[in-house]
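Figure 2 data, in text form.
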Amino acid sequence: MPFKAGLELTELQNMTVPEDDNISNDSNDFTEVENGQINSKFISDRESRRSLTNSHLEKKKCDEYIPGTTSLGMSVFNLSNAIMGSGILGLAFALANTGILLFLLLLVSVTLLSIYSIYLLLVCSKETGCMVYEKLGEQVFGTPGKMIVFGSTSLQNVGAMLSYLFIVKNELPSAIKFLMGKEETFSAWYVDGRILVVTVTFGIILPLCLLKNLGYLGYTSGFSLSCMVFFLIVVIYKKFQIPCYELELNATSPILSNSSAHEHMCKPKYVIFNSKTVYALPTIAFAFVCHPSVLPIYSELKDRSQKKMQLVSNISFFAMFVMYFMTAIFGYLTFYDNVQSDLLHKYQSKDDILILTVRLAVIVAVILTVPVLFFTVRSSLFELARKTKFDLCRHVVVTFVLLVIINLLVIFIPTMKDIFGVVGVTSANMLIFILPSSLYLKITHQDGAKLTQRIWASLFLALGIMFSLVSIPLVIYDWVQSGGSAEGH
């Protein structure tokens, strides 16, 4: 049978290497696979041919090109959605414990560093062809790389779910009291945040998580982003509706009754260092993590290129920088030192329809967003265990067990700052600093032309390691000193 000229690459993947050594020296012979291209050269050794073909097939697992269909504008919206989350509620607390100037410096730094880490991630994706973070880790570092990426992304998603359920725990009791016409001090078992979060989890979230696929739930991220924009508008509006003297009158400490204390309380501070300052950087880092979503969004970008996706990242991060800073500064200038790690919880909904509306909108948004994150964590867990075939019993058991664990954490974690702190110094640090730079250094270790870029990536990696070495002990020290006090929530 005559050999077909111009053999397609897909046919090569299905080609069986011949068992005999009688192979002619023609244009179909090759010696190596480099950057997805086959270089023609005669090899007489049969085992070398077979080994090289298998190497090429393994490479092509991350090198299949599927054209994207999403426009640049929609990609910006999707990435902004991925960045935006509950971290926005903790930024005013971070500002209150760093001061305006120090907070602005940290926010600008994390924004620029996040953009640089996206650049490294896109370079790694271009070099390997991988469009999934876990596959990229496996391609570069093997199974350990896949495990580390899985652990980091899962911890990030679990942290986000915890923060969302913490919002339900904090905000739903106030909303119910308002609807019942009760005072904020009213207490009954059915308005206990712990009972309510368990009820919501197993009454609403569990049935949604038991669905075989997400379906319409994928669209709730758009609603969630709209709620956060609405929240920002309300924060700005309330700054001019809540005068500082009301904060003084509501304060219980008698020392605040004199004018000097009033002036001190209502005066913004620009640089602050205290025991809570350590939570600022992890909280900001947590608010900017979107890295598990970058490559899937990149893969869906129409006429995609590294430059085009970098533009999407730059626009998205700049938009979120503006939104984050506006929320933090207006939240801080409303409550000053009295701000809490959950900014929304500071606004009293008594006789205030606007606050009740934004509270209910955020509650509904986070309830519908939890299953989306849960699906990601569970599917990654099944993928890791190589149990991708759907099994109803396993599906139900794993879902139930994971939700029980998450609820126990929500009930016993005292404040949202603890969630932001732990996730910020662990998974957020890994996803922003350590993993992108490590992957880049490994991929380019033999490329002498990229020495300058490798130096910058090495410094970036060192910064991430230093961040972990400094922040983790300080967060633990604050836990020991504060004894897990709950900020009066």
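Caption note: The domain at 71-479 is CATH 1.10.4160 (Hydantoin permease).
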